[in-house]
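Predict the 3D structure for this chain.
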Amino acid sequence: MGMSVIISGATDQDVEQIFRLQYLCFQSEAALYGNYRIDPLVQSLESVRREVASDCVFVARLGDEVVGSVRGTLTEDGAAAIGKLCVHPRLQGHGIGARLLSAAESALAGQRGATRFRLSAGHRSEGGLRLYRRVGYVAVGTAQGQDGVPMIVLEKEATSYAATA
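Done. Predicted structure below.
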């Protein structure tokens, strides 16, 4: 193959690829819960476009193809909410998700002043939970997603990021 995966900020030209990738990647999550109405599968293209325009969104590219993405936004309490981390199934297990997460954390702390990072994962989402724990996230509670899926809420201090980057 000979190409490297490059992590960069998303642009408006990436929106359709992010939208299609998200739909592909979250099929396995939906199957875990028998719920195909989870947010990443019902989100509109226009909503993704708005997120790319206003939030901190990164993509992983292999040539011209978007093969991963993540989003983050600063919340009122100074935390950064990170979500919709996804990597194309054929490229999972190669560290792309961790690289995307690191890029989002760096930008959210460095450019937007986040004091800590917060994300959630479905309680059966072992792959995602394993990644988040490996990069320093700690479970701080549970929540129920709008789609009814039981979620585990995880956090990590922004200072932890600076020490591990």
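Helices lie at 15-25, 27-33, 39-42, 45-54, 96-110, 126-134, 158-164.
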